[in-house]
Amino acid sequence: MAPTVFPGTTRGGTSTSRTFVAPAAGGWTGVALTEWQLTAQEWIDEHPHDEFNYVIEGTLMVSCDDVTVQADAGQVVLVPAGSRGRYWAPGHARMLAVYGPNPEGRPTTIVGLRDLDGDDRA
Predict the structure, then answer these.
(1) What is the rounded distance in angstroms from the CA atom of residue 2 to the CA atom of residue 60?
(2) Residue 12 pLDDT > 90, yes or no?
(3) Residues 32, 86 contacting (CB under 8 angstroms)
(4) Which pTM was predicted?
(5) CB under 8 Å to 75, separation ≥6 — which residues?
(6) Which of 1, 65, 70, 80 stands the most exposed, by the fewest C-beta atoms within 10 Å?
(7) Which pairing describes strands 32-46 and 9-11: parallel, antiparallel, or unpaired?
(8) In Å, how far are 33, 38, 71, 95, 98 from 120, measured between CA atoms?
(9) Residues 6 or more apart from 114 whose CB is under 8 A from it?
(10) Contact 45, 36 (CB under 8 A)
(11) Which CATH class is domain 9-121?
(12) Which tens digit of pLDDT belongs to each residue from 17-42?
């Protein structure tokens, strides 16, 4: 079987993401792969699948199930399936997100993206 190249589809705005392997609407048994970044922003969502974030550069703060962790460049953080994750970058962070299988195609609940003010950057 020949290798496959995934060039990526970019979405802009205040937070940029580039999807290489998109999650299929009807579900998927492999993985989905997205590069994304935050700059003094937070993103909150809840996935029906595991979500791994490899921090390429910067520092990413992640909170779920009443636990907050800091992931620096070169580290991976996992938000387990069914957990609501709050992701924020006090400065700048660029990540590679890997979504685990979601064969039933259950939807993600998106709470949203917002800019952090001075008090929220901790």
Answers:
(1) 35
(2) no
(3) no
(4) 0.86
(5) 54, 55
(6) 1
(7) unpaired
(8) 28, 14, 17, 20, 26
(9) 41, 42
(10) no
(11) mainly beta
(12) 888 888 888 999 999 999 999 999 99
